Amino acid sequence: MAPRVVVFNNMITPYTNRLYNELVDRGLDLAVLSCTAQEADRAWAGTFTPRYLTRTVSGVSIPLSRSRHTHLNIGIGRALNALAPDLLFVNGLFPSMLAGAAWARANGKALALTIDGWRETMPDTAYHRLARPWLLRQCAAVVCCSDKGRAYFRAEGVADDDLFVVPLVPAWDPPPSVPCFHDRPFHLLWCARINDGAKNAIFFENVAIALGRVLPGLKVRVVGSGAAEARMLARLGDAGIDVSHDSHVPWQAISEVFLQSRLLLLPSLLEPWGLVCNEAMQCGVPCLVSPHVGAGGELVRDRISGHVCALDEREWVDTARGLLEDPARWEVMSQQARKSVRREALADAAGRFKAAVDHLARAPARREAVQ
Predict the structure, then answer these.
(1) Residue 253: CB atoms within 10 Å
(2) Sheet hosting strand 53-56, strand order edge to edge
(3) Is-contact 271 192, C-beta < 8 A?
(4) Is residue 271 packed enough to be buried (19+ CB in 10 Å), middle (13-18) or exposed (0-12)?
């Protein structure tokens, strides 16, 4: 009999739902327990259809920043008792996840951690320095989304055999064909929250304004909202740059944004992965990213499928200009970007997750000694 697998996460997203549905189609007995249906500043709830059992526990989401939340939930034990997992995957280190891990330990269930991120993006507060080692000692497997994540957890003492890389996969398939350079009206694309703390919006503004001085008629597409939204639009407008802005585009329609754009800029200071790169590249959009983007050097290969550049404005201007003034070179990089996001990416991710499940099913449960 197949083991019941429960993933305990903060919330289901369109892209994780796509993976979970694929796993169910492959015969996995899966249920998902979530801390919230939707965090603030998201608009996903109700836009996709799970083909697996879902449950949300009561609680509160506490914003740590505009893009990060911690969760405090009640009734976790009752919910897990009802879902009756044989194998439990927890998706983070916040208090509700630790409660789930404690439940697994007390009930003799095999436990795994599934988490994005790598050395630069893992929190290092006193809480995390206590919670992370404790949780890792309970886990028989760790699932991360990148080789950078694998390297981080290896350094934390996790054995290679217990480490699994399951790449993130967009919520939608690559389009069958993509426009050429001249059929894309926008030179630059920003598609992210508009803030300086993590996304480094002001750097994008400076690069775009400098490019506007040397590339007449520069057109910029901005998708997103945030603390620096008004400033970004005002500065670009004052510089005479043609800007098209949407605070939000539904995920089902976002491919049209990428198909109209020539180059995505993601100069983040903190980026566990950067799924927007997968989405852009499967639409043939080369990405220019900072070294602080998890996808940089793995999915976005420097000078092949995009560019990974230090946060030097002059370098970004020169690199972007080199592509935007050379359509033939752009076409080659566009094709490489599109090839980098394989059509079988979903099947590959599902197979890798299933391998982690099989490994966990073979691992001895780390039982709490209960008299």
Answers:
(1) 10
(2) 53-56, 29-34, 4-9, 87-90, 110-114, 141-144, 163-165
(3) no
(4) buried
**pLDDT digits over 181-231, tens only?**
999 999 999 999 999 999 999 999 999 999 999 999 999 999 999 999 999
CA–CA gap between residue 165 and residue 356 (Å, rounded) = 9
213 φψ region: left (φ > 0), alpha (ψ -120 to 50), beta (else): alpha
CA 193 to chain centre: 13
Strand-pairing partners, residue 4, are: 29
Q: Which domains does the chain have, with CATH numbers?
A: 4-171+345-362 (3.40.50.2000), 181-340 (3.40.50.2000)
pTM higher than 0.85, yes or no?
Answer: yes
* Cβ–Cβ < 8 Å for 217, 242: yes
How does pLDDT run across 282-296, given as a tens digit for each residue?
Answer: 999 999 999 999 999
Strands 141-144 and 110-114: parallel
Where are any strands of DSSP class E within 133-218?
141-144, 163-165, 186-191
Tokens of 162: 């217990």
The rounded distance, in Å, linking the Cα atoms of 10 and 17 is 13
